[in-house]
UniProtKB/TrEMBL annotation, chains A, B:
InterPro entries: CPQ (IPR039866), Peptidase_M28 (IPR007484). Its main location: endoplasmic reticulum. The keyword Protein biosynthesis does not apply. Residues 188-198 have a biased composition (Gly residues). This is Carboxypeptidase Q. It comes from Fibrivirga algicola.
Length: 528, 528
């Protein structure tokens, strides 16, 4: 019903309609945005370039090529001051120049393999036996001393590969959305609890990673000292040919010397087969050829930034930001994580330029780097520009940010937005969503979500939001996998997402007031 | 309810219980079979050897090693006359000794690739450009003449890679089983219609394959003449890292000379990426290293056969057969197609020996070769032993086969049996299933199923049956894929299947009469 009324509103066009109590929405512009976003989309061309043409966008030439492409594209759309801006030292860049891995005895089997990020090289095709490590205790590693030379290291694991009786892909059901809509705000603010993550989730993940790394680092040190050829890794979810691969970035530290050790992710099936053959005392031979390259010529990290200048003399110093991380892991071309978000944000500003939007506030797009290793690009942007290092309070520039909108949950269309505990923004966003309810964007939840760049803003008291997106196959097939490729993008979803984002950004730039801030709860947060 | 009564019957044991009108079932032996099959199973050890240890079982050393293992194992169980029996000339054996494929420009990406069966070699690591063929008409190939040297050939395709909103794996629902149970028998007999296949389905498939091959064979001829490096293939379903790979076996013909052409299957995602890059005129470089080997030292095809001799002087000339094809495609280790069926059948006879069964009729196990290329092993067994070439009638040996039972539908447990139109066998099998109803084996359907070795028997009038098995992820992830590996086997399902098969074979061997035959409908069929 509402949808039909809205469509009529859209067709009439031109008038300022008021939904609810106070939000004035420029329906003529909403209509133009929708026409441009849904009918004349360029989002897939952008995604094609960022993925198929550019390749993985991990720190190094892969990221820099994409960043320069985006800079040029944004300038081409007519944005001002399109630029790469260094946020500080990142570390060495890296990429893969060859990866081949196979079993040659008891029979030949080439295996799906991806070097973990910042893996070293084998320097040539090497043939190797397995050193099978059945201990998991760091002390017990001592007993393997002197046995690692020319070996490929395999640690005993018990991954259980199970068939999927649940579909890889799904969309939010109405029930799920209603549950999210009626959820209470998390206690306190700033992403400490609830939702799909938050800082505490990230801290736990990083703690687990560190614990696991103690064993791995000791083994790696022994392996390097003794001249091992490589180390094999897998995860229980790496099945059916889909490998989940990320990497430790210790090797990217400024002074680190690349080692001659291939750090290889393989499938759980192949991993378990090797374990079973070892336990059955079947002689196994492997061959491996991994060549990676480290780049130390420019160790800085760069974000891409560009603006549509504000037109209202009183408001143009204020800024509405939209952003997404442009970097990716390397096992594929990071299509859903996060060429999707980057292409959507680029498309959103393209739409705004195409419809001739004259925003009162300045609109700034940011494409971040180093998100995958810890939100480096956005955190440092916030530190460098928005927070006073001495007082920990927001700078004038920080105070001037009305809101930051982020997209980083894959290829799914927008179903609504996480308030991140900022309940005062709820009624506003509810009204902004109405013209797009018929496209599936309906839900405002007080809940938090975590694990991406809006947190860098939220944690210092700048309103930062991430949209709710349909999951599609993000958690099963694409997120940090070798299958995160262009073909896993859903064109219609991305068109919708860019349309909704363009509308949100436009509304935020036109609104009389900035987006409300949450009640400050920590000393670090601003009291504006 | 029935299940509880049955369990009581099993606990009492020892007596001959009569279900329905006439089937006498030795419940003490059923109980022993169940105990041995479900509690002391060796089916996964057998499957481990056939897959992880042995590797792919395509014609050549891969198949012969597995056949010799099975022969030894069956003799070890105490079966008589365990043997490899040649059924005639198959053609050259083949295997893969190296496979590496990657894109090196515009950036590096190693790709999941599997040579199609009987692919040639590149002889060394070769770097190559793509020749992109946008025509599909055989005549239009002329325009590419003179352009193939040192090229890798890519034909324009429009595969749509879609996320799966349906689970990869499932089991038969009660509704599905009831529908199968109430289905009418197909008109006529002998697998001409209905079910999951039948001879007509196979004929259609082979016709389609031949049509496609006309274009491919012409292109291959040009490619070979001009010195191309390779040809790329894919299928729309080859996604998420799961590749569906089989192969043409023209190259296995007796006199064929292997060519210097790599015939490579890659994923739909990689295939489509290459097509998109070609269309966008982005320069692409590939590197490929494929080494395959042809074996002409023994071109014969061999089945594995062994017996448990009958003990009833009047019936021991009669034979109950159980079988499964032991051969596989080569992209993985053919775990669900059909190490599963082979291991189940080997386990079934092991169970019978372990429980000290003294069958009245002789029980013969057959593990077939060349099933994947057209039921060669079973067809020729039937031709060589069971049919008189001159009269097209069954021989004495053919008349003596009471029934042939087959398992070749993956790793799923047995849910019942296809009558293949032999409705007279229905009431018998319904009663035989009763002691295993509580294990999910309940359904007798008059329907046909096709595509495997029971058809070789059914088509000449020997009662041939295939069991109904839960699909699990057979059609989505394992059937003819690079993911058909040990970890995709379901141990509990295979234990159940071996238990049910052992019971059926035992009951068939003990029954006073042979299994009824269908009404003869063709001149080729027997009129016994």
């Amino acid at each position: 019903m509402t949808n039909k009324l809205l469509l009529t509103g859209l067709l009439v066009g031109g008038s300022l309609l008021a939904y609810g109590q106070d939000e004035k929405i420029d329906m003529a512009t909403m209509d133009k945005i929708r026409q441009e976003g849904m009918q004349k989309s360029q989002v897939m061309e952008t995604a094609f370039y960022l993925t198929d043409v550019n390749g993985p966008r991990i720190q190094g030439p892969g990221y820099m090529n994409a960043a320069n492409y985006a800079k040029g594209k944004l300038a081409g759309y007519g944005l001002q001051n399109s630029r790469l801006e260094s946020w500080g030292d990142w570390g060495k860049g890296w990429n893969v120049e060859r990866c081949y891995f196979a079993m040659t005895a008891p029979y030949y089997k080439s295996m799906i393999a991806v070097p973990r990020a910042w893996s070293g090289s084998t320097n040539k095709l090497q043939t190797a036996d397995i050193l099978f490590i059945t201990d998991t205790d760091t002390m017990a590693l001592e007993s393997y001393k002197g046995k690692l030379k020319n070996k490929i290291i395999l640690m005993d694991q018990t991954y259980k590969v199970s068939p999927s009786f649940k579909a890889d892909a799904d969309r939010y059901t109405e029930e799920e959305l209603q549950k999210m809509a009626s959820a209470e705000a998390p206690r306190g603010s700033g992403g400490q609890r609830g939702g799909a993550g938050g800082d505490s989730t990230m801290r736990r993940m990083m703690q687990t990673m560190r614990t696991r790394n103690v064993f791995n680092q000791k083994m790696r040190k022994m392996a390097k000292t003794e001249g091992a050829v490589g180390i094999l890794n897998s995860t229980q979810t790496s099945k059916d040919g889909t490998l989940f691969v990320s990497g430790d970035y210790a090797n990217a530290a400024l002074g680190a010397v690349p080692d001659d050790l291939a750090d290889l992710s393989i499938s759980a099936e192949d991993y378990m087969m090797l374990c079973r053959l070892m336990k059955a005392k079947v002689p196994v031979k492997l061959e491996v050829d991994v060549k990676t390259k480290f780049f130390a010529d420019d160790i800085k990290g760069y974000n891409v930034l560009a603006e549509i200048p504000g037109t209202d003399p009183k408001l143009k110093e204020e800024v509405v930001m939209l952003g997404a991380h442009l970097d990716s892991w390397h096992a594929a071309t990071g299509a859903t994580d996060n060429a999707a978000g980057s292409a959507v944000m680029m498309e959103a500003v393209r739409i705004l330029k195409a419809v001739g939007a004259k925003p009162r506030r300045t609109i700034r797009i940011a494409l971040w780097s180093g998100e995958e290793q810890g939100l480096f690009g956005s955190r440092n942007y916030v530190t460098n520009h928005l927070v006073d290092a001495k007082t920990s309070k927001l700078t004038k520039d920080g105070e001037n940010i009305s809101a930051y909108f982020n997209v980083d949950n894959g290829t799914g269309k927008i179903r609504g937005i996480y308030l991140q505990g900022n309940v005062a923004a709820g009624p506003i966003f509810t009204q902004w969503l109405k013209p797009f309810n018929d496209l599936g964007a309906t839900t405002v939840t007080a809940q938090n979500t975590g694990g991406t760049d809006h947190q860098s803003f939220d944690r210092v008291g700048v309103p930062g939001f991430q949209f709710i997106q349909d999951r599609i196959e993000y958690n099963t097939r694409t997120h940090h996998t070798n299958m995160d490729t262009y073909d896993h993008l859903q064109p219609d979803d991305l068109k919708q997402a860019a349309t909704v984002v363009a509308a949100f950004v436009y509304n935020a730039a036109m609104r009389d007031q900035k987006i409300p801030v949450k009640e400050p709860v920590t000393a670090q947060q601003s009291n504006r």
